[in-house]
Amino acid sequence: MTKDELIAKQQIEIEELRQKISEHKKIFKNIRGIIYGIGGPLNDNKLGYTRPQMKIFWDIMKGISL
Fold first, then answer.
1. What's the total number of domains in the chain?
2. Is the pLDDT confidence value at 39 over 70?
3. Is the pTM of this model over 0.70?
């Protein structure tokens, strides 16, 4: 493999990874919206999540901070 071929291959890989990052950011934004929607602006907890379950969602959100 020549140097130019290697550079071209690496650039293609970089672009593919950038695309995946973009897709993942969109997915995380959706997840964040779903999780924050659990309590909604009125903190109504319509689905009846328990406090331990809400703690899990809180921990997930701390890990998804983008």
1. 1
2. no
3. no
The answer to whether the CB of 32 falls within 8 A of the CB of 57 is no
Better-scored residue on pLDDT, 38 or 28: 28
Contact call for residues 17 and 23 (beta carbons, < 8 A): no
Q: Which structural domain range is residue 19 located in?
A: 3-63
Distance CA 63, CA 15 (A): 25
Using alpha carbons, select from 34, 35, 16, 24 the residue that is nearest to residue 66.
24
Question: Does pLDDT of 65 surpass 80?
Answer: no
CA 41, CA 54: separation in Å to the nearest integer?
15
36, 25, 27: which is closest to 58 by C-alpha? 36
